[in-house]
Amino acid sequence: MNKIQIDIVSDIACPWCAIGYARLEQAMARLAPEYEFSVQWHAFELNPGHIGQGEPILPALAKKYGRSEAEMRENQNHMMAIATDLGLNFEKLQVRHTCNTFDAHRLVKWAAEQGRQTAMKQALFEAYFGKAMDVSDHAVLLSCVAALGLDAAAAKQVLDSNQYSALVREEEVTYQQAGVTSVPAFIINNKYLISGAQEPDTLVQALQEIGADSP
Question: What pLDDT, on a 0 to 100 scale, did the predictor assign at position 52?
């Protein structure tokens, strides 16, 4: 069985990151007879300086990208349609607020030690895009922990401390210095970069080519 390592650089606040992983899941399922995949998630913050109360997402995006709110709504409608086809819950995509994701990234690091890194990431995507919950709120984060059947008391200790803060910061710097400026970014076998939420067919072809080149 050929092995492929996939390192995913992403942010919880990035809809394309949720879409990109759902498409990757489809690609990995199609290649499962040939390849064994190992996935690790790494932190990236789209809005690392975010503090205080969040802004409604549509005007915030319009301001950030110099576009109209109508254009942003159309863009979000497009993502919602894609998400629905992939079985993702993006129901509240347009009514969420901006928020800081640093503590959520710390929680993903903690979940990785419980063997539930991907499940935690998906629970956070669901909370933010599906329910418009504030994923900077510790109560929301702990509800995601509880939903996965993990130890909420242990997770609270993490959130109340600085645990994993240095690791998250180190990852962010490492991937920025490596040239990752947008997410999702998929690093395959520590060598090949696939940028963006590519279609499953594209991912299958790329992974097959990489697998064929790997010893």
Answer: 82
Q: Residue 121: what are its φ and ψ, rounded to 5°?
A: -60, -45
Cα–Cα dist 158/178, whole Å? 28
- pLDDT value for 213: 80
**Segment 136-185, tens digit of pLDDT:** 999 999 999 999 999 999 999 999 999 999 999 999 999 999 999 999 99
Peptide bond into 48 cis (omega under 30): no
CA nearest 22: which of 190, 192, 181, 199?
A: 199
- Report pLDDT digits (tens) over 173-200: 999 999 999 999 999 999 999 999 999 9
Structure-derived torsion over alpha carbons of residues 139, 145, 148, 154, reported in degrees to the nearest 10: -140
Residue 53 in this model has a pLDDT that exceeds 70: yes
**d(Cα 68, Cα 62) in Å, to the nearest integer?**
5
Q: In angstroms, how far is CA 187 from the centroid of its own chain?
A: 14
* Cα-based angle 102, 135, 121 (whole degrees, multiple of 5): 75
